[in-house]
Amino acid sequence: MNRLPFALICDKNFLMPTMVTITSILENKAQDTFADIYVFGGDFSKEDSEKFNVFGHYENSSVTCIEKPLDKFSDIVQLSSISPACLLKFDISDDLPQYDRVLYVDSDMIVKEDLWKLYSETELGDNYLAAVLHSACILDKTERINGGFLLLNAKKLREDDMSTKLIAYRRSLGNRSSMDQQTFNEYCKGRITFLSARYNCMPFRYMAEQIPQFYTMDEFNSYYGTNYRDWKEAVKDAAVIHYITGDKPWIYRDIYAGDEWYKYYLLSPCGKQKLDRKGKLYRFNKKLSKGGFSEVLEYYVKKPLRAVYYSMRSLEFRKDKWAGNNWG
Description:
There is one protein chain. The chain is of the alpha/beta class. It has one domain (2-322): Spore Coat Polysaccharide Biosynthesis Protein SpsA, Chain A, CATH 3.90.550.10. Helix content is 39%, strand content 14%. The protein has helices at 15-28, 46-50, 92-95, 116-121, 137-140, 154-159, 162-172, 181-187, 203-209, 217-224, 231-236, 258-267, 280-312, 315-322; strands spanning 2-10, 33-42, 61-68, 102-105, 109-111, 129-131, 149-152, 192-194, 240-242. The chain has a seven-stranded mixed β-sheet. Helix 1 packs across helix 12 and helix 7 (162-172) packs across helix 8 (181-187).
């Protein structure tokens, strides 16, 4: 039996999506894989933890909830809606000392296949973790990862007391919109193994980038070592889909690849509860009430026209425009 440890982080506001992510893991693991799943609950109550005792009908699996106070992070200020519970990511290797490697998965993801081969065969050496590079790196040639899916070299992280060091570095950054991602990128620079784009596929990014608005599909394939005809094929081939930004598939029913998420929602312990997912009219009214006509004009008119304009210009022009973007 292949024992495969997963770590997820959750707060009181993310119970349902976390259960959907766990459901996708359990539905798609191989029969000879034992999924040992740990949910780190930021400021969970006993009742919150007990809600995860519903996965017992899945064979060769275990779901354990570990309640974690967030008091030690109270002085770390973040400037976005990202939960401070994300900082628990720095402690995972210490909290699971029985494992030399751990897969961390964000709770706004779905896992579409068994991940034992990735877990067991990825070369880490003395690197601290493995993750997928931002597609922005195709053009700016930096090495910045997205922190939503990580293969943690837990043994090495413990040996080097990285939990203490990562938290101290994040604290030194001061007020930031990034909770953990900037810290991993900067403090672990040069000690990260890069994974295939399959393991952190972000349809929202591909749509926002409007290939070939900022780079061509050939550049994408060359950078990631893939052979996709278009970005939709990349999404179809994904092992892990990541629903980034505030446009979540449990809020909106028109999210690209949202039907994939909804399939696992129906299979999850929450699936009997009807979801009131919003559509295009709600999105329009929300933008209108938030930013008035100017925001509606930007989203529905200027942004699409800008994408067409960029696509028609030379690639060097697009690269210059891209340089001004900050993807975190």
